[in-house]
């Protein structure tokens, strides 16, 4: 999986040079979308970490994403007391994530007295309160409903204070690498950002996976399966839930932080709003609820769909518009020309199709892509695939 | 000396005077007047909150399903009602006729969405009752996404901007409703009176449905103990379908009511807004409790109007005050009394 992500930009670039370019452009996600897959995937993973493994739906998870994102931007602008303006991004990222972890402890300490629907609602309530506060907090910027922007230099991912080991990220401000290691490969700023963000995401993935597979993670699953029994066995479930929530908030904020570093601007609607949580929820369900890598696949699916349907990097609408003869495009469809229909019903309408797919998943594939795959194979893909392949070879 | 002449004079001046200046003069009469006006507006807003929330609590009370598509249906209701009014009401339609058309639209929209809601229950929700409540939340949320996007596509195809409010139906509101009326010496917006009237009709209708009809009996019994009701030979599944339909219809009725309100108005964003506020009201009142929803809507409405007043007078300069207060009410209520004002403790847990 990681190898796939590693090679993807090169394959994509190579394909664009071949005759299949229009189709590759239409059906394969562009690198800009792949960057979104990285940070939204990490956010969805952090959501799944607490919701999928302990069974408590964290409906206010956007609060942590937003905390990480806003902290990074404010720190870069020197607006956070105690953090001087030039502090390296990696340090502010960790500080922001720690802050989000503490916030999760505060929210969790009252929320985990509740269960089920009530837990979902109280976390949603907290997130909405923070969202409304941030929206009208004049300290953030002169126009807080529009959010804040990084005014200074590009933010770098890497080893702090060592220039050779850090890479500036951002679509316009990032570093581009020419003639990588003398291999004649040029990497654009977006691709460099993609790899830099990818390193952080992979690191976080392994950290979370380590926790899930530790005795602590076992208790989280026990809480999901039967909390009363877990308590009866002697585990202080309240503390376990709280710790899991804090860890999840920490990683959610890291996702927000790398998003802010890449996009260099944050807005309340794109960070703290309920729909950000909803995005994570949808991708988690499609990918596989309660499987750590599932959300990444779900996000990949979501962004792939979005790329195919949007015209930003030559999606299906462009393909249709250019590929179909004009007589077909002007054909009448209930009083609307087909071209207009394509423009409105296909272009940028990914949420519609995603919604339909989501409903179908909830009804028929409740375990998601990865969960169902694991059920079929009888274990994790990495462990079971060789066995199945060997069986077919005989 | 009687105060009556003074009250009359002040009430004449009151609508013209800036509330901040009113407070600055600091007279007791003005204070009481302002308080009464804020209270009246709060009750008006409460009526709106009640109408958008009551369907949600009805569905939850019987079925334990938190319907995330509730807001989307309200949004559709606002547009459908608006469509009827835009088609029928012309420039020279009289006030009475317009209001009659409004009620026809209300009835039509209720009928259509009730049927659609019942169909949705049979097709989508029935197969997953035996799963955990999470999946019902997820499913209805997905449905809400689909409804919202379809609405966007249809509106764009028809040349209407989905995002800012659709002005055409809002312009059909009769002028009578836009003014203020003298009530007990205070100027109250007639729109609020209208909303209170509709809210009261809805409340009485739902109350009668719950207490006077056979289905109401099933619902009240079913929310106590579904299995026992089934054991008594009642087809609970059919009751579920009817209740889900009615709940959906009530959401749309709430939407129609919002159509004329300048604070809301038909727009696709209504979907999320209605949903979040309906959640707040339903949770504060207690999930599944009719009385609770009524009381909570009043509390939220008054909190809303008081905080709006505090902001407009400049006493508090924080623009998000009213939204923050409403969501804080939700959080505080969940902390001190998770089951809500009138809720039953076991409902809604794992």
Automatic annotation (TrEMBL), chain A:
One GO term describing the cellular component: plasma membrane
Protein localization: Cell membrane
Organism domain of life: Archaea
Natural source organism: Halorubrum xinjiangense
Transmembrane domains' residue ranges: 26-44, 56-76, 88-107, 114-134, 187-208, 242-262, 352-373
Major place of residence: membrane
Topology in the lipid bilayer: Multi-pass membrane protein
Record's keyword annotation contains Transmembrane: yes
Descriptive protein name: Branched-chain amino acid transport system permease protein
Pfam families: BPD_transp_2
Entry keyword Transmembrane helix: yes
CDD domains: TM_PBP1_LivM_like (cd06581)
MF terms in GO: branched-chain amino acid transmembrane transporter activity
PANTHER family according to UniProt: ABC TRANSPORTER ATP-BINDING PROTEIN (PTHR30482:SF17), HIGH-AFFINITY BRANCHED-CHAIN AMINO ACID TRANSPORT SYSTEM PERMEASE (PTHR30482)
Protein keywords: Cell membrane, Membrane, Transmembrane, Transmembrane helix
Stored InterPro entries: ABC_transp_permease (IPR001851), LivM-like (IPR043428)
UniProtKB/TrEMBL annotation, chain B:
Membrane topology, from the record: Multi-pass membrane protein
Keywords: Amino-acid transport, Cell membrane, Membrane, Transmembrane, Transmembrane helix, Transport
Keyword Membrane found: yes
Record's GO cellular component terms: plasma membrane
Subcellular location: Cell membrane
GO molecular function per UniProt: transmembrane transporter activity
Pfam families: BPD_transp_2 (PF02653)
One GO term of the biological process aspect: amino acid transport
InterPro entries: ABC_transp_permease, BCAA_transport_permease
TM helices/strands, residue ranges: 47-66, 73-91, 97-125, 137-160, 191-218, 239-260, 275-302, 309-336
Key word Transport present: yes
Protein family according to the UniProt entry: Belongs to the binding-protein-dependent transport system permease family. LivHM subfamily.
Descriptive protein name: Branched-chain amino acid transport system permease protein
């Amino acid at each position: 999986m990681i190898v796939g992500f590693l090679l993807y930009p090169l394959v994509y670039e190579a394909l664009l040079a071949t005759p299949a370019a229009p189709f590759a452009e239409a059906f394969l996600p562009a690198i800009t979308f792949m960057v979104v897959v990285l940070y939204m995937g990490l956010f969805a993973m952090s959501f799944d970490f607490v919701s999928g493994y302990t069974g408590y739906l964290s409906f206010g998870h956007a609060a942590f994403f937003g905390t990480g994102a806003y902290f990074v931007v404010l720190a870069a602008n020197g607006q956070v007391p105690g953090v001087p303006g030039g502090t390296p991004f990696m340090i502010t990222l960790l500080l922001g994530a720690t802050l989000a972890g503490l916030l999760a402890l505060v929210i969790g300490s009252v929320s985990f007295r509740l269960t089920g629907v009530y837990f979902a609602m109280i976390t949603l309530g907290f997130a909405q309160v923070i969202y409304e506060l941030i929206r009208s907090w004049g300290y953030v910027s002169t126009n807080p409903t529009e959010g804040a922007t990084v005014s200074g230099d590009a933010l770098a991912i890497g080893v702090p204070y060592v220039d050779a080991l850090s890479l500036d990220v951002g679509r316009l401000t990032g570093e581009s690498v020419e003639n990588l290691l003398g291999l004649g490969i040029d990497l654009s700023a977006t691709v460099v950002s993609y790899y830099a963000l990818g390193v952080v995401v992979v690191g976080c993935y392994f950290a979370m996976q380590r926790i899930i597979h530790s005795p602590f993670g076992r208790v989280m699953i026990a809480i999901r399966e039967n909390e009363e029994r877990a308590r009866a066995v002697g585990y202080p479930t309240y503390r376990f839930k709280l710790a899991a929530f804090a860890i999840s908030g920490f990683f959610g904020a890291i996702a927000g932080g790398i998003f802010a570093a890449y996009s260099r601007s944050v807005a309340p609607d794109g960070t703290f709003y309920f729909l950000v949580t909803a995005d994570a929820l949808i991708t988690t369900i499609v990918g596989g609820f309660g499987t750590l890598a599932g959300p990444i696949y779900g996000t990949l699916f979501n962004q792939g769909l979005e790329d195919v349907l949007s015209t930003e990097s030559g999606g299906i609408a462009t393909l249709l518009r250019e590929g179909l003869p004009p007589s077909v495009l002007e054909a009448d469809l209930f009083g609307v020309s087909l071209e207009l229909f394509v423009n409105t019903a296909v272009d940028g309408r990914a949420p519609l199709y995603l919604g339909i797919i989501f409903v179908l998943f909830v009804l028929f594939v409740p375990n998601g892509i990865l969960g169902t795959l694991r059920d079929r194979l009888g274990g994790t893909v990495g462990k079971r695939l060789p066995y199945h392949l060997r069986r077919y070879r005989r | 000396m009687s105060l009556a002449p003074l009250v009359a004079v002040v009430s004449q001046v009151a609508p013209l005077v800036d509330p901040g200046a009113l407070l600055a003069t600091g007279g007791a009469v003005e204070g009481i007047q302002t308080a009464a006006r804020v209270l009246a507006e709060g009750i008006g807003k409460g009526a709106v909150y009640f109408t958008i929330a009551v369907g949600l609590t009805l569905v939850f009370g019987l079925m334990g399903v938190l319907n995330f598509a509730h807001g989307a249906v309200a949004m559709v209701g606002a547009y459908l009602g608006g469509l009827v009014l835009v088609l029928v009401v012309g420039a020279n339609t009289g006030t009475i006729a317009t209001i009659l058309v409004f009620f026809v639209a209300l009835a039509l929209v209720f009928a259509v969405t009730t049927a659609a809601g019942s169909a949705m229950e049979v097709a989508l929700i029935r197969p997953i009752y035996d799963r955990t409540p999470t999946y019902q939340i997820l499913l209805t949320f997905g449905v809400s996404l689909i409804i919202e996007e379809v609405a966007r596509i249809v509106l764009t195809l028809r040349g209407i901007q989905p995002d800012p409010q659709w002005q055409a139906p809002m312009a059909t509101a009769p002028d009578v409703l836009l003014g203020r009326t003298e009530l007990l010496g205070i100027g109250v917006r007639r729109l609020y009176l209208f909303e209170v009237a509709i809210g009261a009709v809805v409340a009485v209708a739902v109350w009668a449905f719950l207490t006077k009809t056979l289905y109401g009996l099933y619902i009240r019994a079913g929310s106590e103990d579904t299995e026992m009701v089934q054991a008594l030979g009642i087809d609970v599944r059919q009751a579920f379908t009817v209740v889900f339909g009615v709940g959906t219809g009530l959401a749309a009725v709430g939407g129609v009511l919002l159509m004329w309100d300048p604070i809301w108005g038909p727009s696709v964003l209504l979907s999320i807004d209605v949903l979040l506020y309906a959640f707040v009201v339903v949770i504060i009142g207690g999930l599944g409790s009719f009385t609770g929803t009524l009381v909570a809507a009043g509390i939220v409405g008054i909190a809303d109007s008081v905080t709006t007043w505090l902001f407009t007078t400049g006493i508090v300069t924080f623009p998000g005050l009213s939204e923050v207060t409403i969501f804080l009410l939700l959080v505080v209520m969940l902390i001190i009394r998770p089951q809500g004002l009138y809720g039953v403790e076991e409902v809604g847990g794992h």
